[in-house]
From TrEMBL:
Family of the protein in this entry: Belongs to the DHHC palmitoyltransferase family.
Protein name, per record: S-acyltransferase
Lineage: Eukaryota, Viridiplantae, Chlorophyta, core chlorophytes, Trebouxiophyceae
InterPro entries per record: Palmitoyltrfase_DHHC, PFA4/ZDH16/20/ERF2-like
Keywords: Acyltransferase, Membrane, Transferase, Transmembrane, Transmembrane helix
Main subcellular localisation: membrane
Name of a matching Pfam family: DHHC
Transmembrane parts of this sequence: 40-66, 72-97, 163-180, 200-221
Palmitoyltransferase DHHC domain span: 119-236
Length: 321
């Protein structure tokens, strides 16, 4: 946090400096909350998931069981249990799985990038493969870093990206299912509820419906990034490079893009005949690969393609923090 106050040191109290000061304070508060309030975010997230689940059991499942019988109630329970199981599994795995750092892959990275201009992290004092960025909250370089997520108190990178995307996928489906079930309960031909239960259900419906919409947008965004082999951090740099190329009449090509299907399989570590279902199923297997060599293709390593030293990409800025 000290670096933000260092930035303020030469400031005089002019209007523009006041704006800078406000921005620095906002950044400092964000940094502080991301660094020290992570466990609180995780507890809040877990409490919301379990709270809506408990309300579902009491106010949805029991009336359905009473009015429509065991088969319908069992089908609801199986679907709800499947969604909740996948939500919790991917949430916990995303929290506890290290995203991957440069410590193990640095030697291999040098080997693969022999003769090329390798980027270097000034903070970690290690070579950085392409798509690796330094996280100043985790205080390490993260392989194929997507972003630092306060809700999982962890960076989302090479080894836990799959769990993060599946977490928001199943959370979106679970929220949608909860919202539809609660709406049916609120307007359906069921016995009247006590006022307090009714109010709690209206609140839970509002939370579930809002969460389903926001998570749906977020999931579609990550689908686009995965299919086009981009991370959230790299998207802006790629967009700028695409615009620069377009101005010069050139067509920009992402050197990490191996095609929609190959990108999808690689991101979810789903190979083989049953990849089309395996991508969404729970898996404890450590992701294949090392974030340097593209899995499933003997050709180009991820180092290839990027002009690493000349362009001022965001990771160069990261390395200064
Ligand atoms: Zn670093
Ligand atoms: Zn981080």
């Amino acid at each position: 946090m000290r670096r933000y106050f260092d930035m303020l040191a030469p400031a005089k109290l002019s209007p523009s400096c006041m704006c800078d000061a406000a921005l620095c304070c906002a950044l400092a508060v964000t940094d502080f909350s991301m660094t020290y309030m992570g466990p609180v975010y995780v507890l809040v997230g877990m409490a919301l998931i379990l709270g809506v689940s408990c309300l579902y059991l009491m106010a949805i499942f029991m009336p359905v069981y009473a009015s429509q019988g065991l088969p319908v109630a069992a089908a609801h329970l199986a679907l709800g249990g499947f969604l909740l199981g996948n939500i919790l599994f991917n949430y916990v795995l995303c929290i506890v799985t290290p995203p991957g750092t440069t410590a193990k892959s640095v030697r291999e990275g040098y080997h693969l990038a022999a003769g090329m201009n390798v980027r270097f992290c000034k903070t970690c004092r290690r070579a950085k493969p392409s798509l690796t960025h330094h996280c100043h909250i985790c205080k390490q370089c993260v392989l194929r870093m997507d972003h630092h997520c306060p809700w999982v108190h962890n960076c989302v990178g090479f080894y836990n990206h799959r769990y993060f995307v599946l977490f928001i996928f199943y959370l979106c489906l679970g929220s949608l299912y909860a919202a539809v079930s609660m709406w049916n309960r609120l307007v359906g031909p069921y016995p009247l509820m006590q006022p307090r239960v009714g109010e709690a259900m209206i609140l839970a419906f509002a939370i579930s419906a809002s969460a389903a919409f926001a998570l749906g947008v977020l999931f579609l965004w990550h689908c686009y990034l995965i299919l086009t082999a981009q991370s959230t951090i790299d998207f802006l740099d790629n967009w700028k490079e695409r615009r620069l190329c377009a101005k010069e009449g050139l067509r920009w090509h992402n050197p990490h893009d191996h095609g929609l299907l190959a990108n999808w399989k690689e991101a979810f570590d789903a190979q083989g005949r049953f990849w089309w279902i395996a991508w969404g199923l729970p898996s404890l297997r450590k992701k294949q690969g090392n974030a340097v060599q593209f899995v499933g293709s003997p050709t180009p390593p991820l180092y290839r393609g990027l002009p690493v030293s000349s362009s001022a990409r965001s990771d160069d800025i990261d390395s200064m923090v």
